[in-house]
Amino acid sequence: MKLVLLSGGSGKRLWPLSNDARSKQFLKVLENERGEMESMVQRVWGQIKGAGLADSAVIATSKVQVEILQNQLGGVPIIVEPERRDTFPAIALAASYLYAQGVSLDETVCILPVDPYVDDLFFDRIRDLEGALHNSGAKMALMGVNPTYPSSKYGYIVPTSEGDGSGYKTVGRFTEKPSEDQAERLIEQGALWNCGVFAFKLGYMMDTLLREGMPIQYEELLARYASLEKISFDYAVVEKEPHIAVIPYDGYWKDLGTWNTLTENMGLERIGKGTLSDDSSNTHLINELDIPVTIIGISDAIVAVSPDGILVSDKAASPRVKDMVKAGQRPMYEERRWGWYRVLDYTKFDDGTEVLTKRIGLGAGKNLGYRKHMHRTDVWTIISGEGTLVKEGTITPVKAGDVVTIEPGTYHCLKASQDIEYIEVQKGIVVQEEDFEEMFSSWQDIESHCSGREAKVAGAGQSAR
């Protein structure tokens, strides 16, 4: 069995911590058994490893999430979507990738979200999907959660039979987010919550692509990805397939997609600087800034503070935040493969010049790419740590207190020998993340390039400018 974890979506329901670059699965708000804070994706990947499934798993995600996945999980296998185009194109790309890797057409492929909040038995139950496919003769097998209450927030899988005693049922129909009264009647009929987990044979997906006139070769599908229809796998495939089996899962499962559901499972009432009074019952504070927050006499609330903004909301009303967040707002905090950055200030002057100020953290042993900016000047002030600067082939040691100026068109990079933090001031007519041309990303390639050019090594006493 091959596992494909879908990691997508943009962050609105958990604003201001989540944004277009940092979706809910990357928020480090869950406490693990060691008392450390971890994200949903870190928790799930740890469970997959514990179940012995990591060697068979791959994560499908858009290119904007690649670096944060690498930052949080390390060198996990990733299938990169050139852009977000919903779940059917993402699963099609993943299937063609597996096919290109030589995976048998008879191999079972299981699709699941990257962020379910479940107990470990969930992943043992996933193994049973393969047997359900074989025993039922169905084209697809789903896993449904036994409902614990009549929820109007979830979709329901409605079975038509109990199967033949092999542990599966035959799917009759789907009902998407019914009223609570309808949900109660569905539960009486044996309906299950649809948790977004399903399996099929790889050959089934290849046949689907051919039937839809899509290429099955990975490189060709990748090249045509931008032209694919934005459509969910449910609408494109599942609802059209007449032969589907479902297996029930009777363990713990929850979608931590809103502040009220997330805080129920956080374990801590306060993360970050701040104080809650004793009479602030069932109130949670999450503060990513260095400014302390004090909450007095406010109950059943969420207070979330990040560089993107501040949210103060009654928990029951918190799902409405997605309708109030301004679309297209620039993320003020991002995690990258090498560390993180936080936007401190942005100013645009009357003459069109822009100035963007960031605080940047570069992890020990990590490096920036060897790149140049075309339209801006960067000035770095090293706050703490030590590392190595490469600037147009010249290698220079840098440490706290050093100031580095990077002119437009200058190839440069920085490697940290110990954790480095620095302030970066970007100035130019165009100040954008996309303003760069990168020559190399790995330090080995950068060193090799500099050696080939007979790079000059500047002494510690020389100016980094």
Automatic annotation (TrEMBL):
Gene3D superfamilies: Jelly Rolls (2.60.120.10), Spore Coat Polysaccharide Biosynthesis Protein SpsA, Chain A (3.90.550.10). InterPro entries: Man6P_isomerase-2_C, Mannose-6P_isomerase_type2, NTP_transferase_dom, Nucleotide-diphossugar_trans, RmlC-like_jellyroll, RmlC_Cupin_sf. The keyword Nucleotidyltransferase applies. GO terms for molecular function: nucleotidyltransferase activity. The keyword Transferase applies. Keywords: Nucleotidyltransferase, Transferase. This is Mannose-1-phosphate guanylyltransferase. The lineage of its organism: Bacteria, Bacillati, Bacillota, Bacilli, Bacillales.
